[in-house]
Design a protein that fits this description.
324 residues; D-Maltodextrin-Binding Protein, domain 2; nine-stranded mixed sheet; globular
């Protein structure tokens, strides 16, 4: 029989050998083991992509890690979402999505995920109101004038696609004002061009593609869909100023991790994202796009998300919108 000291020595050697075979990632503090991939739910150049790429360098500076962007567009963002849902919950794969993340589970027969149960909320990013604009040839100057004209004449409107909040915001207005305007869905970048070219009379879009056209005189802005005016276009009224009191609609962007990601990593990510979004250069860049962000905790973002999912589900149901 071996002496106890000999047994302990052998056990120690086995334990050390096992530890030496463990992956380097498990021995290295997050996020320094390997690059952190921000999986963007839309194609390069989309607003979600711009948000993600604006923050990668700052995140690297703040955490000492390497952050990269991978675009996985398609199915309204569902391809990227289901990809991240299946990823290892180790903090090295994150989802960057838009408000469509909250809309899609009710818009699609099977989006492939539960927005609340399948992800750990990391941080709410910047947001921008939607905006109603018209071609300069449309003889209206205000939203009430547009509502009156729509009751007399057939109009159509371009949005950034079926089920987007730009589509659903106009559907909410139609219901509230008891008017009928035909929806013509476009890809996000094409919706504004359709109105500028006169293919549709009206556009309901997010602010980034609309602002340059408004300033160039190629579009007339009638109202933003937030409860307050946007600092980017302070002369454009909020929809609530015209008596539509239940509106506070935004296109927002956010960061999620697979459920099961260690909370310590989630909190570290949240702190880094908040600090990055509060840096002067990022604040200025977002402002130029009509976006703004507010410091938020993981719990605050989680509560916000839980309110957004049923809100948009109700609008999808009342509008009859379906993506498949």
């Amino acid at each position: 029989m071996l002496p106890i000291s000999r047994v302990l020595k052998i056990c120690s050697m086995v334990l050390l050998a096992g530890l030496s075979c463990m992956p380097a990632a498990s021995q290295t503090e997050w996020p320094k083991a390997k690059p952190v991939t921000l999986v963007v739910a839309f194609a390069p150049g989309a607003s979600t992509d711009i948000v993600a790429r604006s923050l990668t360098q700052k995140l690297s500076e703040l955490t000492g890690g390497n952050f990269i962007v991978e675009n996985k567009g398609g199915a309204g963002g569902n391809i990227a979402t289901t990809h991240v849902k299946r990823a290892a919950p180790d903090g090295y794969t994150l989802l960057v999505h838009s408000v469509a993340f909250a809309v899609n589970p009710s818009l699609y027969a099977d989006a492939g995920y539960d927005a609340v149960k399948d992800f750990a909320p990391v941080a709410l990013g910047p947001k921008t109101p939607n905006i109603f604009t018209v071609n300069p040839g449309v003889p209206v100057k205000t939203l009430p004038e547009l509502v009156d004209a729509a009751r007399r004449s057939p109009f159509n409107y371009a949005s950034s696609g079926i089920g987007t909040t730009t589509h659903l915001s106009m559907e909410r207005l139609k219901t509230a004002a008891k008017i009928d305007i035909v929806h013509v869905p476009y890809q996000p970048a094409a919706a504004i061009n359709a109105v500028v070219a006169g293919h549709t009379q009206i556009a309901s879009t997010s602010m980034p593609p609309a602002v340059p056209m408004i300033r160039a005189g190629k579009l007339k802005a009638l109202a933003v869909t937030s409860a307050q005016r946007s600092p980017l276009l302070p002369d454009v009224p909020s929809i609530t100023e015209f008596g539509f009191k239940e509106f506070d609609d935004y296109t927002w962007f956010a960061f999620m991790a697979p459920v099961g990601t260690p909370q310590a990593i989630v909190e570290k990510l949240n702190a880094a994202l908040n600090k990055a979004m509060e840096s002067p250069e990022i604040v200025e860049k977002f402002a130029q796009l009509g976006m703004s962000s507010n410091h938020n905790s993981t719990a605050e973002f989680g509560s916000f998300l839980k309110s957004e999912v049923p809100k948009w589900s109700a609008v999808v149901k009342s509008s009859g919108a379906k993506a498949d």
